[in-house]
């Protein structure tokens, strides 16, 4: 049966089959209750303006509202939703049945999945700042038979239902910080799942509450439309060459002209001298480099580039949509593209421009080897209230936000 003539039921079943297979390819086992929820909720009812085939693409978000060229609301990709629901279920002892859940960011589809997961003795509330979005979510939830989901139009930077505690808060918009209201609304031991920008890189963190702090249980790479309202935080970009940019997610100040002049100088490249199999997972290496760059007193930034600049050889980043880079002593250094060997294995490298380029690349590839030698440890994120004294912080790399102090470590929590 072709995609064009396939029925909605067939497309729905094929999507979930693909999600289960993709989980297995990543070494993950999809929880049975998450699979059952995905098979129960008809996604096309939450994407009524999209083609049926688009509604059931496993890795495709469906944009439901734009302002100009910017997507401000969407029904997230099923692959990402499935992973975040799995994170939530894994982090809560006993799973999600009977739990009380608050979703921040309303598209309707995820709220319906959560309603299936919590069952008749649980509850789901979903909140969004945009009245158009909440009206649409209400209509879609009602059409799909989930009219007992509570839909609220409000800015979730403040408590949605003051005094109420939730077992799970799941955020489906990209956040830069964690406001006090989110922690305050979590039950002790409850879980917050949030796509959080940390050192300019967005990951879905599952964080458990312990008194006034949160400690991560798991994390996954992801991407979401950005938070609006009081919790919004603008990502700045600095153009340093034609098609080459620095993404400045914190309060970094850079001399764009000086860095651009560095890029015009000859490139120095160094290799870690490792031979890694093609399925080696490097997802956590960039956060490791970010913490090592910061701890060394260098300035950390994220390098991005258009494909034309990469093809022209202006830069050779490991990933053109976001590669860790360091500015230090008039030298610009970043993680470079992989070097493949004849036996289909690869090496890790670094590129640098400037007077200290050889030392800078040597330091960066040394940091890569250290991470590999340590067994490629995953990051652990601790979130504490702003103003927490340094002496009360766990050992790690500190990143101060508006409401919080983040501490990243690579040792078990």
UniProtKB/TrEMBL annotation:
Its main location: cytoplasm. The keyword Iron-sulfur does not apply. Its EC number is 2.1.1.77. It is found in: Cytoplasm. One of its GO terms (molecular function) is methyltransferase activity. SUPFAM superfamilies: S-adenosyl-L-methionine-dependent methyltransferases. It holds the Pfam family PCMT. One of its GO terms (biological process) is methylation. Gene3D superfamilies: Vaccinia Virus protein VP39. Belongs to the methyltransferase superfamily. L-isoaspartyl/D-aspartyl protein methyltransferase family. PANTHER family: PROTEIN-L-ISOASPARTATE O-METHYLTRANSFERASE (PTHR11579), PROTEIN-L-ISOASPARTATE(D-ASPARTATE) O-METHYLTRANSFERASE (PTHR11579:SF0). This is Protein-L-isoaspartate O-methyltransferase.
